[in-house]
Amino acid sequence: MINQQYTLNSFNCLNKPTASRLHNMGLCEGCPIKVIQRYPFHGPVIIENNHQRIGIRYRDFAALTGVEA
Amino acid sequence: MQVLVNVLLVAAIIALAVFIIFRTFRKVKTGGKCAACDYDCELKKIKDKHDHLMAK
Amino acid sequence: MANVALIGNPNTGKTTLFNSLTDKYAFVGNWTGVTVEKKVGTLKNSDIQIVDLPGAYSLNPLTKDEAVVTNYLLTNRPDLILNITNASQLKRNLLLTIEVLERGLPVILILNMIDDLRRSGQSYDLDLISHRLGCQVATTNARGHKGINALRQQILNYQNISSQPLQLDYSGMLQQAIRQATEALQNDFDYDATTARWLTIEFINQSKAVREYASAKGLTPLLSQAPYYDAQKFADQIYENRLDFIEKLLADARQSVTSGGQPEVTSKIDKVVTNPILGLPIFAGIFYLMFKISFEWVGTPLSNLLDWFLSVPVSNTVNHFLIQVGAMAPLRSLVVNGIIAGVGGVLAFIPQIFTLFACISLLEDSGYMARAALVTDRLMQLIGLNGKSFIPLIIGFGCNVTGIMAARTIEQPKERLVTTLIMPFMSCSARLPIYGLVVAAFFPKHQALIVLSIYFLGIFVALLVAKFYQLLFHVKERSVFIIELPEYHLPRLDIIWHGTWDKGKGFIKKAGTIIFAGTVLIWLLSSFGPSGFVTDSTKSFAAVLGHALVPFFKPIGIAEWQAISALFTGVLAKEVITSSMMVMFHTSNKAVLIAALSQFMTPVAAYSMMIFVLLYIPCFATLATIKQETGSTKWMLFSVVMSLAIAYVTSFIVFQVGSLLF
């Protein structure tokens, strides 16, 4: 699961502030991301995009990539 | 004479302390944040200058 | 006098650049949200003022912090804007740049951390960027002091920089809506064309700060159209148009691309410290090390030396001098047993406090803080907060007031409120002197461990109370947790020193003001009694007050009137507790007080007293800040009552259970 590539599918299931913060960080629908690290018990996920590393919550990650929660 | 000087010095130190406590209470009352902080930053100086000009 | 504003995303090295450009430094940390209020400095060798604004991702503020930036642009007209960007992450940085350029003020675009970009094998055609955006472009590496002089020359020349507002082509309906509203604003409200267009775009883009501004000013052309703008999802279109523009610009300007990627060092360190299993133990280990250094290896030995110096040579010399010039007993008592013993007793803890601050500054500068937020997020979620609350809480170890200010970076208002309310349970540096005394007297072998246990108890209580608030306030909003993990940098000595000094100098200043005043107050109370001046302090007002309250404090193990009276003065500032003890035990020497204390109390009672000091009523600077940041006296009073109750209950339990066990 680590170092796997994902594509951001949809921002629709996120709450508004989260979506707009991710947009501000240059993440948009269709952007490729790489998972760097994930934490047990559905803890945060570290993703990499465009030379930046960002920590997001598992729930948001699942909503973005469409991976089963 | 000696007694007087002694009494005056003690009174002066106490007065200074009481003044500081009152000043701190007043500062805190007029708004925490910057007012409650002991550090005179640039921003505070500019604000004081600004208030001063506005008062004129 | 000219005004220059520094605007940029978090983690772009904004504050480092500010410090290199100006004479006066401001503090930097390698995590988001260090600049909580704007800071002002003067450009070296000039009278140009530079304003350092908090880092913002966009002009649509999610946090109180970002609102400062938007409001600054709404109400000020700086002569020049320095838009600082991280050269390796231009795509997202330029989103803010576009918003700034649309404001139509002269702008210099700074590509900072240009070395990182070059190392990754890339470069950009700066002329092309400059031409397309219509602003000057400069490159710097602020941490390495590169490009600073050239930039300073550009700033000095600010009058020759023309302002060309960026006119991005927005698509179809959106463009038309912008044009209509802009014209209406120009005609009805006398805005110039650029400002009107900027206001319109930001309004359509749902910027909270601009919408509030429009409501306040009654800008009907915008307000009446708001439902239409939102229904058409114009905000999304604006974002897409801007992103298209940026992607095209970067594709055209990119000159050579070899395979890049994250520099090795950061990846390697991150493999260890953000390890899913080891992350939390490493976090705890780093803290243990911090306290070991402050209380056993470096801080305490230095502190003992300083204490000896203040209590033996200084105290004796002053005493002899006073006898020679004919000072009488009360004056000598005030100066030697009052001021020197009290204020000196607190000053003796400078080494421990500064060592601890140096450790915290080192953590902030290295970039570890963001990782700490990440590894603690899962735990924080359990109590309805998020990892981001953790950073202000750690800042609160320095001073609760700055911690509460740092809580401004939290997006959700309720999470911010809870973080503010639990802040007083974070053991601030002012409480260190009293711990220092107690551990030296009762736990000489395990000083670091005992102090660490008090800190963790504070955190534990804070988390418990947070959970309680979460249930009380029915926090149901889905919280936001997105945290950037900046590159690690090698800590720079001057930055750490500045950070330490910045945090520590308030402590020294307090010694001259409120600690001094509190000491004099307690000297008065312990030197005068119902019968006038007394040499035996057991007949003083302080003793009368203390004795009266013994029944209340006895169940938590504090049965000495000296300690009880000292607790009262702690509301002025927590350091005053220590100086009050010095004054009331009539000693100018820490070692003597330590010996006296161990006769009065059992170790369990002493530990219970430390807990009470940790948790009871916050000092009133903190109370005032709580009032300010929550905007209500209610929360302030609430905090007083809650902390007093929690302190009493916790120390009661610890003392009663502890007395049974030991």
Question: What's a concise summary of this model?
Answer:
With 69 residues, chain A is an alpha+beta fold. In chain A, 25% of the residues lie in helices and 29% in strands.
Structure description:
The complex is a heterotrimer of chains A (about 70), B (about 55) and C (about 650). Helices cover about 25% and strands about 30% of the residues of chain A. Chain A has 2 helices and 4 strands. In chain A, strand 2 and strand 3 form a beta hairpin. In chain A, about 45% of the residues are buried. Chain B is built from 2 helices and no strands. Chain B has one domain. With about 55 residues, chain B is mostly helical. The model of chain B is unreliable at about 40-45 (pLDDT under 50). Chain B is rod-shaped and about 45 Å long. Chain C has about 650 residues and is mainly alpha-helical. Chain C folds into 2 domains: about 1-180 and about 230-260, Rossmann fold, CATH 3.40.50; about 280-475 and about 500-660, no CATH class. Chain C is elongated, with a radius of gyration of 29 Å. In chain C, about 55% of the residues are buried.
Question: Would you report the number of β strands of chain B?
Answer: 0
Number of helical elements of chain B: 2
Instruction: Report the uncertain regions of chain C.
Output: 27-36
% residues in beta strands of chain C: 5-15%
Radius of gyration of chain B: 17 Å
Taking all residues together, what is the mean pLDDT of chain C? 85
Q: Which residues of chain B form runs of ≥5 with pLDDT under 50?
A: 39-43
Strand residue content of chain B: under 5%
Termini distance of chain C?
A: 69 Å
Computed CA radius of gyration of chain C, to the nearest angstrom: 29 Å
Find the count of extended strands of chain C (DSSP E, 2+ residues).
9
Helical residue percent band of chain C: 55-70%
N-to-C terminal Cα separation of chain B, in Å? 46 Å
Oligomer: heterotrimer
| Most strands sheet of chain C | 6 strands, mixed
* Total separate domains of chain B: 1
Give the CA-based shape of chain C: elongated
